[in-house]
């Protein structure tokens, strides 16, 4: 069986009609593959960006962890300071209690010993003050009298000296 030109032409046309849709499908597939490749490149770029962001985030997390450690250390220091302040506060409370007790003791001494003594002094002061006031006036009078007497004695002494010189 030998094929003539017409047969070959018919086969060729038949193949062209059958292969045409396949070729267009292949072209579409090629276009889709190109689109997928472009998408794949975009995804790779996005993945690279995400990896860079992930590295930045890891660095930030490390920084935050370091800050967290510092804060924990500061908190521990503050806790220690607070404990110290609480201890000092307890000491101060004890001292205040002691001061209150001492104040009560002093108040009792003032009330029971000093006030009665002051009252007794005040009761005795007025009569004594009047007595001293009168004595002061008398002493001033005596001082004046003594001054006059000194003056008179000095004059008499002078007169006696003159008389003894004349004789």
Helix and strand sequence: H
| DSSP summary, beta strand count | 0
Q: Mind summarizing the main beta sheet?
A: none
* Morphology call: rod-shaped
Helical run tally: 1
* Average of the residue pLDDT scores: 87
* Head-to-tail CA distance between termini: 213 Å
Alpha-carbon Rg, integer: 64 Å
Determine the fraction of residues in helical runs and give it as a percent range: over 70%
- As a percent range, the share of strand residues is under 5%
Class inferred from helices and paired strands? mainly alpha
Oligomer: single chain
Unreliable parts: none
Write the layout of secondary structure elements.
Elements: H1 5-166
Model description:
The protein has 167 residues and is an all-alpha fold. Helix content is 97%, strand content 0%. The chain has one helix and no strands. It has one helix spanning 5-166. The longest helix has 162 residues, at 5-166. The N and C termini lie far apart (213 Å). The mean pLDDT is 87.
List keywords for this structure.
mainly alpha, 97% helix, 0% strand, 167 residues
Give a quick summary of the entry.
It is built from one helix and no strands.
């Amino acid at each position: 069986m030998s094929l003539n030109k017409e047969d070959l032409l018919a086969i060729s046309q038949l193949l062209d009609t059958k292969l045409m849709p396949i070729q267009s499908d292949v072209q579409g597939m090629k276009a889709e593959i190109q689109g997928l490749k472009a998408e794949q490149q975009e995804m790779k770029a996005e993945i690279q960006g995400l990896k860079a962001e992930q590295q930045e985030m890891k660095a930030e997390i490390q920084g935050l962890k370091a800050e967290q450690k510092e804060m924990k250390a500061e908190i521990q220091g503050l806790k220690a300071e607070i404990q110290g302040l609480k201890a000092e506060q307890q000491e101060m409370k004890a001292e205040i209690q002691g001061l209150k007790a001492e104040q009560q003791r002093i108040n009792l001494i003032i009330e029971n010993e000093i006030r009665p003594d002051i009252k007794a002094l005040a009761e005795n002061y007025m009569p004594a003050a009047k007595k001293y006031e009168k004595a002061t006036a008398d002493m001033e009078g005596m001082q004046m009298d003594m001054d006059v007497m000194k003056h008179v004695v000095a004059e008499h002494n002078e007169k006696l000296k003159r008389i003894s010189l004349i004789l």
